[in-house]
Amino acid sequence: MKVIDSWNVAGMTLLTLSESIPKGSWNKVTIDGESFKPLIPLYAGDISRVKNNSIGIRGEHDFTGKTIEFV
C-alpha cells in the first residue's frame, strides 16, 4: 500500500493511505526501512469521524509516494 498524502502538524505526521488500514494483528508500520509505532488520529475526540485510511506517526516526515507495511 502507498502513502498518497503526508502532512505535518504539532510534531507529528498524518499519512493518508491508498487503501484502508488492514484489520488484524499488527503493532507497527515500516516506511523506507524505518519502523514507527502508529497512532490512530481522532478528530476532536470524536472516533466516529476517524477515516479508515489515515494513520499518524511521531516526528515530521514526508513519506508521500512511499510504500507502507503493517507488521
Radius of gyration in whole Å, from Cα?
A: 11 Å
Please give the share of residues in helix: under 10%
- Please tell me the overall pLDDT: 88
The overall strand count is 6
The percentage of residues in β strands lies in 35-45%
Q: SS-based structural class?
A: mainly beta
Terminus-to-terminus distance = 13 Å
Number of contiguous helices: 0
> Widest sheet: strand order?
1-2-5
Catalogue the unreliable spans: none
Shape: globular
The sequence of SSEs as H and E is EEEEEE
**In this structure, how is the largest beta sheet organized?**
3 strands, antiparallel
Structure characterization notes:
The chain has strands spanning 3-9, 12-17, 29-31, 34-36, 54-58, 68-70. With 71 residues, it is mainly β. The strands form two sheets. It has a three-stranded antiparallel beta sheet, with no helix packed on it. Strands 4-3-6 form a three-stranded antiparallel beta sheet, with no helix packed on it.
